[in-house]
Sequence to fold (416 residues):
Amino acid sequence: MIKVALVDDNVDLREGLQIVLKEHSDEFECIGAFGDAETALKKIPELKPDVVLMDINLPGISGIDCLKQLKPKLPNLDVIMLTVFADDDTVFDSLCAGACGYITKNASPEKILDAIREVRDGGAPMSGRIARMVVTSFKAPGDAAAQLTDREKEVLDQLCKGKSYKMVADALNITHDTVRHHIKNIYKKLEVHSVSEAILKTMKKKII
Amino acid sequence: MIKVALVDDNVDLREGLQIVLKEHSDEFECIGAFGDAETALKKIPELKPDVVLMDINLPGISGIDCLKQLKPKLPNLDVIMLTVFADDDTVFDSLCAGACGYITKNASPEKILDAIREVRDGGAPMSGRIARMVVTSFKAPGDAAAQLTDREKEVLDQLCKGKSYKMVADALNITHDTVRHHIKNIYKKLEVHSVSEAILKTMKKKII
DNA sequence: GTTTCTGTCACATTAATATGTGAAGACCGC
DNA sequence: GCGGTCTTCACATATTAATGTGACAGAAAC
Fold:
């Protein structure tokens, strides 16, 4: 039996989902439905549901902030964001806040039930386009590293581990001055003017 | 009609999948099946399939490296990794290389066909546990920022934009010395000894 | 076989960062 | 009110990083 709670300011959707869950009362039990984050934050920690379906656009505290406050109290809680919006920021903010799934509201009731089952089974239910967004976010963008020589990449790699010039020199068995020479060229190629900027550009463009 | 190519060193699996695809010849066309990455790299750019099912553990060049070389030539190609392994590094390396999906070999033939359909429909088919791994990778680990004061976070934020002490001082309208003072405290709290390390720790722990 | 690129090293100067010590005003909780 | 923390600023000094210039050897390219 999976204990489910709902957080959505739309009464119709809340009631609709509750009916759907009751139709599958052998599997699911809806132990709470709330119209705003404030109420949810008060009640959910006591109710200890297994899964929460959370809307994002709520009056007052947003679903994402609600999730952020909920997660430390109930680390084992699986939260599925259920919302109409699916822009980059909203999705990634939700995942960073600890959401385990993200489905858009145009999903069928059966899909939503599947998502609840899936998330309890250790999965991460996501609408197709959301999953693709998430996956492509890993892909390294255009290879800005192509211009760097092998040795320069080695030096940059060392810098990206937090090492100083001297430590890099020791690690690569070259002199401090040679390290400087490479770094100067790295700066020119990456168009930066400090170690910090070089590291940041490297992280952002996934050069190494 | 979706044009599919297979890359796997297991003959049985190749032939099995080809049979399954033929059983759905109204939807799918298998236009190539290769036992190693070298052959695949030679043939696939000419064949221009829509989807490639790619094993990772291949003799010689790995499936991930094969994908890396394939992607620039065929940017619109959807590659699904189909493998027995599902450790962190393998999964994330695959996604960074440009894979659009990742399913384990214990998936049923019907699941594999679903995955091909899904990936062509703009989705990112993944086995449950893989999806969860991907999603949880976004979650910020234990809040190491809790110990930082608001002002310290502001300073660290500036540093993480590549600014120098002087620029931070200007941005926050405080003196260079005050910036230094904050940074010293940040170092102590994060247990680091340079801007680079502070930035790296911040990125890794998603402190800001 | 000369040029080009890469990697190596050296010397010199200026700018920025790291570390230490001290102190004053603001704000909060007890 | 008093002690604590946060924020602010100052002076001093040592280390590190940034920038400039010059040079040499090996490998690859022409």
The first strand of chain B starts at residue 2 and ends at 7. The mean pLDDT of chain B is 92. Residues 149-152, 174-178, 181-182, 194 of chain B lie near DNA strand D (CB under 10 Å from a C1'). Chain B has two domains: 2-136, 144-205.
